[in-house]
Amino acid sequence: MTFIRNIAAIAVAGVMTASGASALTISSISPSWQNVNPSSGVTESTSGSTISLRWGSGSSSSGYDFTPTGTPISGLMPGTAFALGQFSHLNFPITGTTLSSVDLLVDILISGGPLVSSSFALTHNETLNRPANCPADSTPCDDIVTITNNLGSQSFNFRGQNYVFSVLGFSQDGGSTISNGFSTTENMQNVATLYGEYTVAPVPLPAAGWLLLGGISGLFVMGRRKKRSTA
User: Fold this and answer.
1) Considering the chain, what percentage of its residues have pLDDT values greater than 70?
2) Phi and psi dihedrals of 218, rounded to 5?
3) Of 75, 104, 197, 231, which is most buried, counting CB atoms within 10 Å of its CB?
4) Are the beta carbons of 128 and 43 closer than 8 angstroms?
């Protein structure tokens, strides 16, 4: 029966994991803004690799900056979080138009492989600097940046192996804790790092494989019954 157990374990392992997974190299990370809301009163710009949004009137505009991590990024193993880039919120008192939401699209080029795209939505809460609007902090209020929908993920194939790339969220402590949002202090630039990872996609077992597993399970049960009857 040990032989049957070993065969069953090998077959099940084939369903849950995939062989041939290896370290990947990211050759470029290209971000862009999409679906800016409101569509007027918010200005988009690019400086080098950094993409920016600006809105509102005051001594300084409020806004977002996103700067992708320098590439290449080599030796990335499945299940290891890595920095996609630095996200900054310039939080200053403003009047006029405020950002409501925007999508951040991140294109990742795998060296020798495909271009993997992931998009997710950000909502922006430009709080009023009044005591009644500051339950968690003193006036002026912190603003809040939140990822509102499921974090972006995308399946891709590289050298015959299936993977899933996922955006994990923001971290302000070097990746020790990652969340889907963060509060930002008034009158300063607030920085968080956006993290992602790729994992090996489970390999579905063909119908014939399930029949094989069923047969192995039947033999295992029969063997146990036979063992009990002779005990």
Assistant:
1) 69
2) -60, -45
3) 104
4) no
Structure tokens at 99: 């950002």
Provide the pairing of β-strand 50-55 with 101-110.
unpaired
Residues with Cβ < 8 Å from 174, sequence gap 6 or more? 193
Report the alpha-carbon distance of residue 67 to residue 88 in Å, rounded: 9
The domain limits of the chain are 18-201
Contact 169, 180 (CB under 8 A): yes
Residue 116: enclosing H or E segment and its boundaries? strand 115-125
Cα angle 49-109-52, degrees, rounded to a multiple of 5? 25
Kindly report, residue by residue over 56-81, the tens digit of the pLDDT: 998 889 999 999 999 999 999 999 99
What residues contact 160, with CB distance under 8 A and at least 6 apart?
Answer: 20
Q: Which of 1-5, 34-38, 80-84 has the lowest mean pLDDT?
A: 1-5
Give the range among 90-99, 197-206, 213-222 with minimum mean pLDDT: 213-222
Instruction: Read off the tokens for 36.
Output: 């800016």
* Measured distance CA(196)–CA(85) in Å, rounded: 10
Strands (E), the chain: 24-37, 42-47, 50-55, 62-68, 73-76, 82-91, 101-110, 115-125, 143-147, 153-158, 161-171, 181-184, 188-200
Least Cα distance to 120 among 99, 107, 106 occurs for: 106
Q: Is 74 helix (H, G, I), strand (E, B) or coil?
A: strand
Instruction: State the Cα–Cα distance between residues 55 and 194, nearest whole angstrom.
Output: 22
